[in-house]
Amino acid sequence: MFFDPVYFLFVLPPMLLGIWASSRVKSTFQQYAQVPVSSRMTGAEAAAAVCRAGGANVTVERVGGFLSDHYDPRTKTLRLSPEVYDGRSISSIAVGAHEAGHAIQDVERYPWLGFRSAMVPVTSFGSRFWIIPLIAGGIFQMQPLIVAGIVLFAATVVFQLVTLPVEFDASNRAKAVLTQAGIARTDAERHGVSKVLGAAALTYVAGALSSVATLAYLVFRYMGGSNND
């Protein structure tokens, strides 16, 4: 399918959006990583403060990698990249607080987070192996295998769509608590936090659109093949 010009008609627009979004989140993070916060809090301290404010009892630890920040609901651990964990910038408190927002979601049993967590095993399997039945079905002209491949890929699409409200809600929680707790004290700091989190949100939107476009292409090709039969 990757040599099919029609495929690129489906996926090229979201692919370009994804490249632009990835570039923007890095440039925005780096821009506001140079802007210190008046509270002088590190990203780790801000994350811990947001967790406490939301009633989440978690461990905050440093993890390697650039923007590798994430919350692990299984171990109740919030892992922050070095730039976020140690940084005392707008970018650091924004990302740290966002990940803390996921911890608060977990405590409050936010339904979309629970649904996404429940989908992880299926999505992990589907994202790795959906192409195998699709190719085998195409080679041996076995439509059930093709359908199985499409269904497995569809599971990853649902996962990415569910991720959107989870990420948006975490950002909204982060911005609210940063303001209420006096961590982001000025309008300029709050604006910077919104810019950093808004840029990050675009990457999730672009990823979801790319997956939806690929699924639409697969269904389009399958329906075309079925009609020809």
Description:
75% of the residues lie in helices and 5% in strands. It has 229 residues and is mainly α. The longest helix has 42 residues, at 187-228. The model has no long low-confidence stretch (mean pLDDT 94). This is Neutral zinc metallopeptidase.
Secondary structure topology:
Blueprint: H1 5-32, H2 43-53, E1 59-62, E2 70-72, E3 77-80, H3 82-86, H4 90-107, H5 111-129, H6 131-140, H7 143-180, H8 187-228
Parallel strand pairs: 1-3
Antiparallel strand pairs: 2-3
Helix pairs in contact: 1-8, 2-4, 4-7, 4-8, 5-7, 6-7, 7-8
Pfam families: Zn_peptidase_2 (PF04298)
Transmembrane segments: 118-140, 146-166, 196-220
Keywords: Membrane, Transmembrane, Transmembrane helix
| H/E element sequence | HHEEEHHHHHH
Shape: elongated
Q: Identify low-pLDDT runs.
A: none
**How do the strands line up in the largest sheet?**
1-3-2
**Class by alpha and beta content:** mainly alpha
What is the end-to-end distance? Answer: 19 Å
**Share of residues in helices:** over 70%
Please compute the radius of gyration using only Cα atoms.
Answer: 20 Å
Provide the domain count.
1
Count of DSSP-assigned helices? 8
**Major beta sheet, specifics?**
3 strands, mixed
Name the beta content range. under 5%
Question: Can you count the beta strands?
Answer: 3
Rounded average pLDDT: 94
Key structural traits:
single chain; 229 residues; mainly alpha; 3-stranded mixed β-sheet; 3 strands; elongated; transmembrane; Zn_peptidase_2
Summarize, please.
This is Neutral zinc metallopeptidase. The chain crosses the membrane at residues 118-140, 146-166, 196-220. By secondary structure, this protein is mainly alpha-helical.
